[in-house]
Specification:
Helix content is about 70%, strand content about 0%. The chain has about 110 residues and is mainly α.
Amino acid sequence: PTLRELLSADNNLKIARMHLAWALSDSDKPEEREMAIEVAKELLEQVDAANPVAIATLAWAQYKAGELQLAVETLSKVSSNNLDRDVAFFVARIQESRGDKELSQVFDAA
């Protein structure tokens, strides 16, 4: 499902978890960035394990917590076909951080 599909479903708690994970990921406090990972994992448990939005949310939280390799491993579960723009943004930023500028540009164009 795309972000639009996730948002259009009656999933208020899931949507709240996703936004909470994103917000906590941007915190200056390491404990809140770790909490973002936990919230994102809870989100992933609530949706289809192949949901690209939930996977990218977890990868973003891991990335922002300084766990780049783990974020890359998590992102390996996302197909680059038909990516939602928000998911493509997260993927591009993480790929860019690991030095993969070419792949980052591919996702930026999505």
